[in-house]
Specification:
The structure is a homodimer of 402-residue chains.
Chain A (H helix, E strand, L loop, with lengths): L20 H19 L4 H8 L3 H13 L3 E6 L10 E5 L4 E8 L3 E8 L4 E8 L7 H20 L4 E9 L2 E2 L5 E5 L4 E5 L10 E5 H12 L7 E6 L3 E7 L2 E2 L31 H4 L1 H7 L8 H10 L3 H25 L3 E4 L1 H20 L8 E3 L6 H16 L9
Parallel strand pairs in A: 3-6, 6-10, 11-14, 14-15
Antiparallel strand pairs in A: 1-2, 3-4, 4-5, 7-8, 8-9, 11-12, 12-13
Helix pairs in contact in A: 1-2, 1-3, 2-3, 5-11, 8-10, 9-10
């Protein structure tokens, strides 16, 4: 299968395509893909009426998208309608797929998601990645990517790109891990370490978690603050359906918002940061569980069993989260705060004090706080879906299968 | 003079125009205006090469813009060049003008800015607007607008719209003042109170101050946090050259970020908010000047004279600003923090402790803090320029002169 649409480097997500006839064609291809993806199966006529182009123009676009394997025809629509039956179009389940990878502190995971949003393959390896070299870790990731790609190729799919979630700050080049404290990585260019034939995007796990919520969350608003935790506490700020990245790519460092300015010193250089009260280590210490194994699960289990010290520690973490979120809500006026990542699993014990703190610091109705259903799956799914979204946003830039 | 381009309601600033041939023409008109505005005077050929359209296409667009009074020809370029001399184009100094108004607690101001960015008329009235009815205050504003419009009409300009800066929260409809505590206004629809023949936009003074910094500040970055104060403390969050408004339009409430969570209660419902440490009343109280007249000037004068209590009060306010800004910088990762509004006049005494606090709470290089040259002129200029930007962004939507 060839990809005749292949024309140029993919446009960055959300970046405007050039305002020329050619750019207009590329945008219209994207419109067709998004329409069929959101509302399909649809006939050509239905697509034309949805996007306000003529049926003839849509047919040309659709034919191109079928040739490149992005759309497929399901056969004639069911009879009983007036007029000649049209053939229903659907997003292809055998076209390009997005490969997502997650480099966690305790595990590696890779998955493939097709254009319909279905997870088609998955591989996981438990590993203590603290202080392993980037070369060793990325060699393992490359292995897992190969497994997953081999699996989907057997089903007629091909990889359109690789997106990697990391627990650290990533530069705006989308390749360089500037600082991942729990991995011990500094200024690590993953572009030289991962398979060169796949277009690569590296991003912070909290960002991919927030994007997953935007794309996959139930009734996700377009303006929200997604708070997540692994070892540290991160946030993704989504504004008008777009991720706010910051000048250096470091936005969303909620964990380093001062909660009590005279509190304990923090590794970031600050004092009394949120992480000193609601970060994993701080909560484990307060719960008297300093050296627990699978730490978040242990906290959840002990809290569920009613252990008072653990519940008290989580209550206090909720208060600290409430104070930091009051500031964030006043600055950003989001429609909602979503607790994701490991925090989702602890929500029953964090939420009451968190919500009470937000409410008592707000004159009007407090910003609603909800819990992500994606939980710790968010970053991996967000990574894979970011590749899929890239295909929908600019179908003409999809790389041909290798 | 007629305005043959008049076609539709103005597009909201930054909102994409429809992706049709007609939309493309409107975007190209905007491109011509922005290019001549930023780099003019320019020949048609120079405009064509800058925006990547043919000379013929640009000539058609330019002719339309000249007919509607938005561009003018300055006559033949200076001789000595090869080929037929082109006529240099400039943005008109006799076309539409933006009318800006500021409703302050102690004063009202109105000004007119032409498409070249020059202030062409200005009217100010000192008045204590605390607890005056919206009807009385807007009647005064309407008077001042009439004066200013009469003045510019004498010079061949006409008003393209009115933008009003208010010290309070404004709904996203751009008309309704939801709450202006120091005016005593609640849910006040200014759309019914101000001249109906002018397109109206109402916004928070901190937002217009931030936009003025974006458009007029020297070397203004595209990602910054603009902090300003009148009676309260507000901020404008500018991301990728766009103002972040928030779901309800309430973003930027830096004054209600908790600085010391157990501190004094605040009218917002919170406790230990920044305003309790760095708001005008708090600083005056700490400086022992509770009932001073023109308060910010008094603070600046006393600090300049070396009065120790006043300097100490401003030092402490700088510390509180530094704590709140540490949180904001960690969340937003701006390129710069800009002190504007009344804070600009107090900067010499606020900045040392503010910068020290930011630096000591940051591991790497701290976010730079600069001082706006626009100072308390920012909101008024930002309002007038917002109308001018609206004209440049969608010249086809400019209303005809009444």
């Amino acid at each position: 299968m060839t990809a005749p649409l292949h024309e140029a480097r993919p446009a960055a997500p959300g970046r405007a395509l050039p305002d020329t006839q050619q750019g207009m064609r590329r945008r219209n291809l994207a419109r067709v893909m998004h329409t069929v993806s959101a509302e399909g199966p649809l006939s050509r006529a239905a697509v034309a009426s949805r996007i306000g182009l003529t049926r003839a123009a849509v047919s040309t676009l659709v034919d191109e998208l079928i040739r490149s394997g992005l759309l497929e025809e399901l056969g004639p629509e069911r009879p009983g309608r007036v007029g000649r039956p049209g053939s229903a179009l659907a997003v292809s389940g055998r076209g390009p797929a997005g490969i997502g990878a997650e480099i966690g502190v305790d595990h590696l995971a890779v998955c493939a998601v097709d254009l319909r949003g279905q997870v088609r393959a998955r591989a996981v390896r438990q590993a203590d990645n603290r202080d392993r070299s980037p070369e060793d870790v990325t060699a393992d990731v490359t292995d897992l990517v190969r497994q997953v790609v081999a699996e989907i190729e057997g089903e007629g799919l091909w990889p359109a790109g690789l997106a990697v979630a990391v627990p650290g700050l990533v530069a705006r080049d989308g390749r360089t891990v500037v600082h991942a404290p729990n991995l011990g990585w500094h200024d690590t260019d993953l572009g030289t370490l991962l398979p060169a034939h796949l277009p690569l995007t590296v991003d912070n796990e909290a960002n991919f978690g927030g994007l997953a919520e935007l794309w996959l969350g139930e009734a996700a608003p377009h303006d929200f603050l997604h708070v997540s935790a692994e070892i540290g506490i991160g946030a993704a700020v989504v504004v008008d359906g777009r991720l706010l990245r910051g000048t250096r790519g470091f936005a969303g460092e909620l964990g380093h918002v001062p909660v009590r300015p005279d509190g304990p010193p923090c590794a970031c250089g600050g004092q009394g940061c949120l992480e000193q009260y609601a970060g994993e280590e701080a909560v484990l210490r307060a719960a008297g569980l300093a050296s627990a194994g699978n730490r978040v699960e242990v906290l959840a289990d002990r809290a569920a069993e009613g252990e008072e010290t653990v519940r008290r520690a989580l209550h206090d973490a909720g208060v600290a989260l409430g104070i930091a979120l009051t500031g964030a809500v006043n600055l950003l006026d989001p429609e909602m705060v979503v607790l994701g990542g490991a925090l989702a699993g602890l929500a029953p014990w964090l939420l009451p004090s968190l919500r009470a703190e937000l409410a008592r610091r707000t004159a009007g109705p407090a910003c609603p706080v909800s819990v992500s259903r994606l939980g710790s799956e968010g970053p991996l799914l967000g990574a894979a879906h970011s590749v899929v979204r890239g295909v929908l946003d600019d179908p003409a830039a999809v790389p041909a299968p290798v």
